[in-house]
Amino acid sequence: MDYLPDQLVWEILDRIKKTADRNSVSLTCKRLHKVDSEQRKFIRVGCGLDPATESLNSVCNRFPYLEKVEIIYSGWMSKLGKQLDDQGLRVLSNNCPLLDDLTLSYCTFITDGGLSSLASCSKLSALRLNFSPRITGCGIISLVMGCKKLTVLHLVRCLNVSGVEWLEYLGKLETLEDLCIKNCRAIGEGDLIKLGPTWRKLKQLQFEVDANYRYMKFYDRLAIDRWQKQWIPCSSMLELSLVNCIISPGRGLACVLGKCTNLEKIHLDMCVGLRDADIVCLAHKSKNLRSISLRVPSDFSLPLLMNNPLRLTDESLKALAQSCSLLDSVRLSFSDGEFPSLSSFTLDGILALIQMCPIKELALDHVYSFNDFGMEALRSAKYLEILELVGCQEVTDEGIQLVGQFQQLRVLQLRKCLGITDDGLKPLVGACKLEMLVVEDCPQISERGVQGAAKSVTFRQDLLWMC
């Protein structure tokens, strides 16, 4: 080993990807130990840090060129020792001058003081906080004022972070490309307008409201009303995910849906107020759309819909079929199987997508309008590779027997489908047609009935959902 060129030693270590293997190799000789210390750019630590601050200090001294650090305390209990606190973050900021990407997950001891110490990490471009209940907007603003190269910011369950000054500051910087805000109770849809010029830079936006704590305030309404006076440029947006959001006609997030000219992927989950007009506008603007996931309320799952029924219909699906020629992944879902929607998507709308778009992946969840005639139509879907049916009770053995005739299908997933029995899967047994078959919680399909129906078979039977 002593006679090998430095470059060769670096290449040898670079080919070892598993952390445990690298640790073992680095202990074999001083040279490998030194090279590993210089080469290591990423570490993931958590509950094993004990004592936390001292251990992190040792890690940082051992690996002085760290660029990416993940500190994850998932499953932490007090008997595992004290968590990393503000002092630990100061160690990180003082000893990792190249730190570029930081994830803090379940770090419940960290406060605004510790977060503000990271402002000295001038190279930091990505920060992800998952369940940091002591962090507030003050900590976020102090960090973003120091880290002016921030392009990725994820806040998940940061319950005390409000979206005022730090959003405005990021809006003026115009560096942010990936923003994720999930279940941060103090941040509402109206706060997003504060991003201002940064909207034109955003490539990915995930915004999820905690439905269990959702409440409307008067100032929220005023904030959303202001959106209609603002032009929201979203030409760089590639991925958009909205969950439990309120879509107001002609303003707020509805403005965003109509401005994403380069959008490739969209996920709309239980967005109240979403109308056909919003999806039609989206379809006309987003010619590059490749993936869409729609999860909509069933007729009785939201009290709001009893008085003001706002439902997506086939008009939305047909607009997507006509305008989005690249669409290859479609997921349609209704939220409550006990109260199926009777006046939303029909078989005609679904077939329009199948016939006019190069669909490779199709997932239908409690879509009661899809039946054996739909399965018949799938025979002409020459690009279909993955089919997932969940709670599609109108699909029977007659329809599922046609799977063997699907040209490119390689993965079939069946969950909670009451109308399919072992007989429906018999044509697949021994045919070596499918690469993977997943059957879960289908009461009339037995474990014996799926054996040999695909190269890889997963079977699970838990019928408590029927009780």
From TrEMBL:
Residues 82-198, 374-451 form the F-box/LRR-repeat protein 15-like leucin rich repeat domain. Residues 4-41 form the COI1 F-box domain. SUPFAM superfamilies: RNI-like. Pfam families: DUF7885 (PF25372), F-box_5 (PF18511). SMART domains: LRR_CC. This is F-box/LRR-repeat protein 14. The lineage of its organism: Eukaryota, Viridiplantae, Streptophyta, Embryophyta, Tracheophyta.
